[in-house]
């Protein structure tokens, strides 16, 4: 039926039935049209369904862990892993064994270094008298020399060839003890990628590829080249050294508080040097291995949500992370009496405060949730109760009581943000799995709720 109006659009015109349409053709055409509409409606419905689904299931959450070196980023990540990817965490247990062995060796070398510097000082008449090293200690010093080799072996195996990182300095195998002391101030560090894990699997498997370990506890623990052979042979001597009253006196004088240092295992020597030693969850959390660079991890938190956790600590990274939903900022409050390893002029707490100020005032991060972890509260408490005065390092603290309640509320780190936002602040000791679990659960819930609220606003 031709229409009489002239202002009809060309499309309608094109779709018009032909003027000479037969009843059969007409029936066929109507059937085809109905079918096309049916299909088109299904597509529309599907699109609509997808749109609603997208609104309901928000994009994955991206969380950045930020803080100075040794603030606890990797340790927090391990907690995420325990909670949301326990299989992967378990699988790496055997790899951490060697890290812990290296941590033990490092502690021993810190003691031996303290002895050496005491000997050197004793020779210069100007200094105050040093406690004299006993014959027994001098013998221990000699007997523990093989540990130098163990340290080199472990370091070499931990840092894959060509990792190209200057901080992951390999110790020169020909270096003298004094040379080594200098290089020891540099920690062993690994790239955040998984290259070191690959290198390790090979190492644990031995030269003859006796077994691909990949963290399977059924490693060949009887490998004669395993560092644990020397380590367990030295265990008794290490214990003698650590428990020696002169050593304790020396360490006190040099203000070396090993118990509070990262990767301290000397109180569990028998256990961690045993040939069949496999680290516990707590051991893995207390193990210390410096991370270089940024790593990204994905976790499934609920059936719909995934989380990225990325670790980094340099403000230079910040512009790359403006699409983060949240930053967990770690400030080790126990570090109030320490200087940065990379710049001994800078107090570590002050450095944390400066980094935090930079973050809260950064325009790129104005839509990012900020969660502050005032970490290492356990060490903080120990320090304060052992008589270290907070006000000696934070002058503005004045004469307030030197206890955790007061110092932790002193507001040092609670800087105001340039944009109005909610702050979440937690006192943490991320080496404590139980308390960290409830904090991380809480953080996840807050972030998911915020994410859902944002999605609702957009709809
Ligand atoms: N006692 C105690 N030790 C902690 C706490 N948090 C972290 N540590 C230990 O401190 C050391 C450093 O923690 P990491 O997680 O390696 O620090 P990081 O921020 O990843 O440091 P980098 O990799 O150098 O950037 C590790 O040996 C941890 O076991 C804490 O709350 N209490
Ligand atoms: Mg790290």
Structural class from helices and strands? alpha/beta
Q: In total, how many domains does the architecture comprise?
A: 2
| Helical residues, percent | 40-55%
Mean pLDDT: 78
Inertia-based shape = elongated
Widest sheet: strand ordering:
4-5-1-6-7-8
**Unreliable stretches, pLDDT < 50, 5 or more residues?**
162-185, 199-219
Approximate strand percentage = 5-15%
**Oligomerization category of the chains in this entry:** single chain
Order of helices and strands: HHEHHHHHHEHHHHHEEEEHEHHEH
Topology:
Elements: H1 10-15, H2 23-56, E1 61-66, H3 73-84, H4 86-91, H5 93-123, H6 135-143, H7 147-158, H8 177-184, E2 189-191, H9 195-205, H10 228-243, H11 245-253, H12 269-272, H13 281-286, E3 290-292, E4 295-300, E5 306-312, E6 326-332, H14 348-360, E7 369-375, H15 377-385, H16 404-408, E8 423-427, H17 433-458
Parallel strand pairs: 1-5, 1-6, 2-3, 6-7, 7-8
Antiparallel strand pairs: 4-5
Helix pairs in contact: 3-17, 5-7, 5-10
Briefly, what is this?
By secondary structure, the protein is α/β, with parallel strands linked by helices.
Descriptive labels:
single chain, 459 residues, alpha/beta, Rossmann fold, 2 domains, six-stranded mixed sheet, two-stranded parallel ribbon, 8 strands, 10% strand, elongated, binds guanosine-5'-triphosphate, binds magnesium ion, magnesium, GTP binding, Guanine nucleotide-binding protein alpha-4 subunit, GTP-binding
What does this molecule look like?
The protein folds into two domains: 60-88 and 292-444, Rossmann fold, CATH 3.40.50; 92-279, no CATH class. The radius of gyration is 31 Å and the shape is elongated. It has 17 helices and eight strands. Helix 3 packs across helix 17. The model is unreliable at 162-185 and 199-219 (pLDDT under 50). The two termini are 44 Å apart. The protein is 47% helix and 10% strand. It is of the alpha/beta class and 459 residues long. The chain has helices at residues 10-15, 23-56, 73-84, 86-91, 93-123, 135-143, 147-158, 177-184, 195-205, 228-243, 245-253, 269-272, 281-286, 348-360, 377-385, 404-408, 433-458; strands spanning 61-66, 189-191, 290-292, 295-300, 306-312, 326-332, 369-375, 423-427. Strand 4 (295-300) and strand 5 (306-312) form a beta hairpin. Strands 4-5-1-6-7-8 form a six-stranded mixed β-sheet, with helices on both faces. Bound molecules: guanosine-5'-triphosphate (GTP) and magnesium ion. Guanosine-5'-triphosphate is lined by residues 67, 69-75, 262-263, 285-286, 288, 290-291, 313, 375-376, 378-379, 429-431. Residues 169-178 have a biased composition (Polar residues). Keywords: GTP-binding, Magnesium, Metal-binding, Nucleotide-binding, Transducer. Residues 1-26, 159-178 are annotated as: Disordered.
